[in-house]
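tokens incoming
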């Protein structure tokens, strides 16, 4: 989709749809006031009769408004102005984006970002509006054609504003690219998106962008490094595991890199600890951690951020087979730590631990892993916040702040040593399950043992990576949080 800026009075803009916002009982925004005046008071009349809905997330589509060049005016509700904050503003933008998407519009002009509220700036509001419109426009067509008569996606969107907003618009496009990539990879079926497919994706990113290099470790390479935990998971699958390493060098070589590690289980059957049919249905999404780190990597390369970034994707498939790893097996990880496998469905940590150990060779500034790791995280935090665990307060704060800024939020959970003993077993250094209680935290404890000498954070995205429902699917999260974090490391200017 093409984005542009137009600095003109909204009533004059020739477009299929003009998008403005209104609060419940507050003052009109500049664009709403302009339409109000051009139409001889139609906006306030319809607000008075209740024909325009002002509640947060509500939208009203008006046709042929007098004195206005646009064919339609889409009015989005911000809700009560005194309650308006960044997450609520973002929801209003998403609702507007969804209404645009649901109607057969190919172009629009958006002014929804012209309402001032709280402590935020015009750049931030424009960026969120543009990103929301772009995200709402996503359409999956790889294995299903668009039906005749189903609404086509937008081709272009213009936004009100002058050149002072240009950088924010470019940034929105960078974010949008990463979200869309993460989302598409998540949505692809597991018979297409397998470890080799993810490797080819990484290779096409490496070809397309400057400053990007790719290395792929095959199973023999991993065996040589002693990655028996990762390879144990892969043993039951006929699709060979790949450890995908993408490097982006945007800063001087002496800058320590940020390393992102993604869980790329392209299908999680549970292995011999087989999942039930109901629980297995959604497990093509078990590579969404990998998808989101690839998305953030892509955003970073597109925006040519002055950082050094390494992205490690541990791509495997977890299947039952005569050669599959079994409950009771004891495997030695690359780090030398021995692990008793009591549940082959706790495979994410088995895969991640070797990828985390491998990350140390890059002398990282920080390591952040992202994984659809535990059903327990989804139980604890639902579908709105990703779960964050970290051994470093500053890194944790930075990630939470980034998530708030882009409205791709996370919530921190404890990494107290008291939880560690739940991993004790007489037969190995630890077992791969921690029992019924605090499942997300014991998974974090497990990973923490491989990151004792590193500044490390873990994002559990089991509840946030996708939505299960008729026209939902992967969300692309938390590629936005990660990209914002990288931007924040460079500059404090654009929030
Ligand atoms: N990929 C799943 C976690 C998951 C489940 C994510 C449901 C999203 C929705 C993971 O590999 C898994 O199976 N975890 C187990 C761990 C348990 C066996 C300790 C879980 O959460 O049940
Ligand atoms: Mn599993
Ligand atoms: Zn899994």
């Amino acid at each position: 989709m093409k984005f542009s800026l137009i600095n003109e009075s909204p009533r004059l803009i020739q477009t299929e749809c003009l998008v403005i916002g209104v609060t419940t009982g507050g003052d009109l925004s500049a664009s709403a006031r302009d339409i109000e005046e051009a139409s001889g008071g139609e906006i306030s009349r319809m607000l008075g009769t209740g024909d325009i809905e002002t509640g947060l997330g509500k939208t009203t589509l008006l046709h042929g408004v007098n004195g206005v060049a646009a064919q339609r005016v889409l009015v989005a509700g911000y809700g009560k102005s005194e309650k308006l904050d960044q997450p609520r503003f973002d929801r209003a933008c998403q609702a507007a984006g969804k209404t645009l998407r649901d109607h057969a519009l190919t172009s629009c002009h958006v002014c929804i970002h012209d309402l001032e509220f709280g402590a935020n700036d015009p750049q931030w509001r424009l960026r969120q509006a543009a990103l929301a419109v772009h995200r709402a426009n996503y359409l999956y067509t790889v294995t299903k054609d668009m039906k005749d008569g189903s609404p086509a996606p937008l081709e272009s969107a213009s936004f009100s504003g002058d050149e002072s907003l240009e950088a924010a618009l470019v940034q929105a496009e960078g974010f949008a690219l990463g979200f869309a990539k993460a989302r598409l990879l998540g949505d692809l079926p597991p018979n297409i998106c397998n470890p080799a497919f993810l490797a080819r994706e990484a290779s096409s990113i490496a070809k397309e962008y400057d400053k990007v290099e790719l290395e792929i470790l095959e199973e023999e390479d991993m065996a040589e490094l002693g990655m028996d935990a990762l390879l144990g998971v892969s043993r039951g699958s006929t699709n060979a595991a790949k450890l995908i390493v993408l490097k982006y060098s945007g800063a001087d070589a002496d800058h320590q890199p940020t390393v992102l590690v993604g869980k790329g289980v392209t299908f999680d059957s549970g292995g011999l600890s087989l999942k039930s049919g109901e629980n297995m249905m959604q497990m093509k999404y078990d590579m969404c951690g990998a998808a989101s780190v690839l998305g953030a990597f892509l955003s970073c390369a597109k925006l040519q951020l002055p950082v050094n970034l390494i992205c490690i994707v541990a791509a495997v498939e977890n299947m039952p087979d005569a050669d599959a790893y079994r409950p009771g097996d004891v495997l030695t990880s690359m780090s030398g730590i021995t692990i008793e496998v009591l549940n082959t469905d706790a495979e994410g940590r088995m895969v991640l631990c070797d990828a985390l150990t491998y990350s140390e060779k890059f002398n990282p500034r920080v390591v952040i892993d992202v994984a659809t790791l535990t059903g327990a995280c989804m139980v604890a935090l639902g579908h709105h916040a990703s779960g964050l665990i970290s051994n470093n307060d500053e890194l944790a704060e930075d990630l939470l702040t980034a998530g708030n800024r882009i409205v791709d939020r996370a919530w921190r959970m404890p990494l107290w040593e008291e939880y560690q003993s739940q991993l004790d077993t007489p037969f190995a250094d630890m077992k791969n399950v921690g029992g019924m209680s605090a499942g997300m935290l014991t998974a974090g404890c497990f990973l923490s043992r491989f990151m004792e000498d590193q500044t490390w954070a873990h994002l559990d995205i089991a509840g946030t990576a996708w939505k299960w429902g008729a026209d939902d699917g992967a969300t692309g999260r938390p590629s936005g949080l990660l990209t914002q974090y990288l931007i924040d490391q460079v500059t404090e200017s654009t929030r």
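note: Residues 268, 270, 345, 347 surround manganese (II) ion (ligand 2) (CB under 6 Å).
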